[in-house]
Amino acid sequence: MPAANFASATIWTGDNLDIMRGMNSACVDLIYLDPPFNSNRTYEAPIGSKAAGASFKDAWTLDDVDVCEHGELADRNPAAYAVIDAARQAHGKGMQSYLVFMAVRLLEMQRILKPAGSIYLHCDPTASHYLKLLMDGIFGKDRFRNEIIWSYRTGGVSKNYFARKHDVLFYYSGGSMFNMQTEKAYTKSKNRKPGLVNYGAGQAMFYEDDNGIYNLVSMRDVWEIPY
C-alpha cells in the first residue's frame, strides 16, 4: 500500500480537489468533510473577525463547475452520474451543479482512502437524499454503516412546518474495526441509586453527577449536541 506523500497534521489552503489529486492513492485512514450544503445563501464573515470582508456563496449554477467534470463523472462512475441526472430532472440545474461539485471530490476521496478507512460526510436535508445515493455509488452500498442525526435546539422556528433542527452525517467504512463509544443515559426513576444493579439478563453500573443518576450505554445514531 502506498505511503502518504505528505506530512501528518499538514494544513492546506485552497481548493481541496487540486490538493487531493496530488496525494497518493490509498494513504488516508479517516476523512471528515463539512462541505457547502447548497443552502442558496451567501455567508459573510463577522465584522471584527480576522476574516472580516470574506464571503462565500452557497448557491450553484453550471458556471460554477467545469464542463469536463460532467464527462469525467459519466466515465468514472456511471451510477453517480445517473443520480446527478435524476437530480437535474427533479430539482433543477442548481442541484445538478452542486452534486457535480461534490461527486468529483468524493471520487478523489474514495481514491485516497485506504481500503479499511472510514469517511464521515456532514450535510443537511437540503441534499442529503442525493448525497446518500452518491456515496452508495462511489464508496459502495455495502460500506454504509450509519446515518447519524445531529440534533440541536438553537435558531428560529417556522409557522409553516416543523422546526428544522438537525444535520445529517453519513458514515461509510471499508473495514470491520469499530471503536465503540458510550454516552450517559439518565434515569427518570426517583428510586435509583448509584451502584451495581442486577437484571435478569445482566447487570448495569449506575453513577451520579450534577445532572442526576445515569449509566453508560452504547452511543446511538442520534446525537444531542447544541450549537
Automatic annotation (TrEMBL):
Phylogenetic placement of the source organism: Bacteria, Bacillati, Cyanobacteriota, Cyanophyceae, Synechococcales
Biological process terms in GO annotation: methylation
The name this protein goes by in its record: Site-specific DNA-methyltransferase
Annotated source species: Synechococcus sp. SB0676_bin_10
UniProt-listed InterPro entries: DNA_methylase_N4/N6, DNA_methylase_N6_adenine_CS, SAM-dependent_MTases_sf
Domain DNA methylase N-4/N-6: 28-193
Family: Belongs to the N(4)/N(6)-methyltransferase family.
GO molecular function: DNA binding; N-methyltransferase activity
Keyword vocabulary terms for this entry: Methyltransferase, Transferase
Signal peptide from the UniProt entry: none
